[in-house]
């Protein structure tokens, strides 16, 4: 579903991503971990077509994000780390706007918006303007907008930040449901416990280079993911 | 004091550099060279006009009257601009949480924001006043005190209008915060205030006319109306140390008092402005599917109407276009009298006789000076990444912005056209051509605006005002617009002078617009997506 081959991205002379390669298959939840500034967000922005990259290739369901960006973006949903949404819009207008962009038909969007708004308990707030929302509420709005168009691939940058415990639980359930349906989930996180329990695959990035990648069992062996991560950071 | 200077330095280094383009690398030539070229051209034009006005006054040794006039024009400009900029620059900024959590007085935050605003206005005022000062120094044998007083005046004269604009802007922000639809209330209150100010300015035409006839007494009148102007000119004519102290003391004093008063109520107003009132009556939400292009247009329209400074900046010129059309129909003689006061003398018969070309010129003027798109990319700010992640071609996103702006602009222009068509004589061909021009020229203006904004994005602004009023994109866009209008006015003048067929002239002007539009479309098709994708937030 996602194939990253030898991707390099430079900011000035500095390599933010250095020959990054890995694959994420159908029905996998992939955790992408690394310290601050390691290159997680840079790779996510390259995968979603937000930022360009200098070398290598990223394929989304076999299509190149460089050559066929619109076709690739149709397959995926992106949830940013800091939900900078359109503050002047009402939440429902924003979700509707995203659905329009993905061409979601009326009945499907009605069903999905109702389902996820109830799950994240913001049905009553859908008519409020986003500038009145807390960080968590904005995050929930961004998640509903991402889920409302039934993406085949979810790419999320620290999706649990700002969410209340109930919403974190619900989000994890949604992710499990999605992989049962053969979808792909890729997310970055600093919460290693969640990654360890939830994910089937993991990659650890340090200074733009992938230090370890593979199934959760392969990467952590008998140790905890936290220990593996801390050892690599030394 | 150290904390205040640190805050001021941090604030200025980021916000004051309007020529810094965020989200993209830029060459030194573009960063330094372009602003210098823009400033020099603008100052040369103002200086030329000032010198032209001084010529008849030089015969009676009263060149100083032009200095007085330019001081007043500068102050009025700062006041009008400042009123609708102030509330956006002072309140509800994106860095509020960070700054208000620092261990500094809240009034210090306000003071730094006012200083930042003041320094920007010093630069703007210098573009108006400095050329007039140079023109004066070239005509009159001035001494060293002229340079000393004028240098100080450049720094001191903007103080009063800035302080008054901040006070009025704060009052507007305070009252509009009472309403649930704050932005709408702010737009209405500000527009009403600006219309009152415009009305008062129009009624000053007699004073302006007197300027040419009886310079000394008018200078006294202006001095009484606006004290700093008279004080400055008095110092230029007859330098006295005590007068200089008085001049500085009064300006600093009033500025200080107004800033202190605002400082005492700043936190209260800012807290009030920040409260977002939810619409408790509307809990039922509606879900309606539309096409991506229509959804993008709705999104842009929503952004436009939610930003008071955006609406006032773009809308005021368009409203003035309609008002100008009405005034031309109702009382053209009075308007011409007003222009005569500024040294532009033409007869009503002449204007009426050439009305089709005049209206065509007005259409081009209204279009080219009301660019909406020049801020539309920058106003996306950090949410620009949402757009970039969408499965829509960048050209569609750009097109939606241009169309939204054109949908806002064209009805005003068509309304003005209609008023003129009813009141003056036009042939069918002229009507058709002007209607076509009324669509083509707004398209040209908005295409230019969006291309300029793609070239000069400002994605890290602390508020909408910085983008709409204090960004490289808006400055370049206005300058390009004024340039096109200047060329068009010259062509119209030459056409009328040489008895060129009016219908043919309008047809050629419309065709010229269409050719430019085609060129811009080709550019956008070839480079638009690349420019769009190269903006990194």
Could you walk me through the main structural features you see in this protein, from its secondary elements to its overall organization?
The complex is a heterodimer of chains A (234) and B (537). With 234 residues, chain A is α/β, with parallel strands linked by helices. Chain A is built from 9 helices and 10 strands. In chain A, helix 3 packs parallel to helix 5 and helix 4 (106-119) runs antiparallel to helix 5. Chain A has helices spanning 40-47, 69-75, 91-102, 106-119, 135-147, 165-180, 192-198, 216-220, 225-233, and strands at 2-11, 14-24, 29-34, 55-60, 63-64, 76-79, 153-157, 184-188, 201-206, 209-215. In chain A, strand 1 and strand 2 (14-24) form a beta hairpin. The mean pLDDT of chain A is 93. Chain B folds into 2 domains: 2-282, no CATH class; 292-534, no CATH class. Chain B has helices spanning 2-15, 28-58, 64-90, 96-100, 106-139, 144-156, 159-176, 182-202, 205-213, 215-225, 227-237, 241-274, 292-306, 308-341, 348-353, 355-368, 384-389, 394-423, 428-455, 464-469, 472-497, 502-533. Chain B is globular.
Secondary-structure element series of chain A:
EEEHEEHEHHHEHEHEEHH
* H-E string of chain B: HHHHHHHHHHHHHHHHHHHHHH
Major sheet size, sense and barrel closure of chain A: 6 strands, mixed
The helix fraction of chain A, in percent, is 25-40%
What is the C-alpha radius of gyration of chain A, as a whole number of Å?
17 Å
**Percentage beta strand of chain A:** 25-35%
Rg of chain B computed from alpha carbons, rounded to a whole number of angstroms? 24 Å
SS summary, helix count of chain A: 9
Largest interface (C-beta under 8 Å): A-B, 44 and 37 residues
Low-confidence stretches of chain B: none
Strand order of the largest sheet of chain A: 6-7-8-3-9-10
